Amino acid sequence: MTFVVTAGTINPAMVRKDFMLRLMKYKRILIQLRSLGLERVFSNNLGDAIGISAALVRKDLARIELQGNRRGGYSIDSMLDRLNRLLGGQETQEAILIGCGNLGRALLNHDAFYKEGIKLIAGFDTAPPGKEIGGIPIFPLENLENFVANHNAKVALITVPASAAADIRDRVLRSGIRGVLNFAPVELKCSGNSVIHNVNIGLEIENLFFLVNSLEDRLAREGLETATCGQNPDCVNGNCEGCDSLEDCETENKEVPAS
Questions:
Q1: Are residues 237 and 180 in the same domain?
Q2: What pLDDT does residue 213 have?
Q3: Which domain holds residue 112?
């Protein structure tokens, strides 16, 4: 079944998560392009930027009733207007952060959030390291509930130790926060009245190492790795003056093939 958005905002329950994420990536890229003074963009530009085909870009844009042409591409202003209406991003979205350690401070100082329509309006910590970080006010954690009650923040970023993450989640949700982006190295669950995204940086790095190691193993099996001699960087499979025999060659991920 083909799904077409015709009016209003997107209901996340009705569309695939990967489609939603692509729309958000398109929006981010379009904002950057417009800041450079560009007025139009082609599907292959967007596809190259996020690593997908131009055909998929055109399919996505057709689903939200955006049409371009081969010679002129798409109007960046028209695309951003449509995406803002669908994604609910016409106004700046406010969020708070709990946990002002190293990662928390880095996020508070990340001014690119504002360019993407996101504004961190406050940070909280059990022992505030100062009155503000990156121009954002920092409050004792005990002020959390009162602050949320008097501001429009709907999302909280959690950057606390794993041992404190569950308690902080419960506290921010009770205060009225509906969405949590959790950076603590523990998987947090959510109820039907909230949304939680877990971002485990250590797990992502570990997964990247696994993928790299798997890639190297595959390349070795396919014979794309060549043996080299420790005496001569130009040696390949023992064919150099520095080797008295094939046995002198040191190999990397592959045995030297027999002659």
A1: no
A2: 94
A3: 93-199
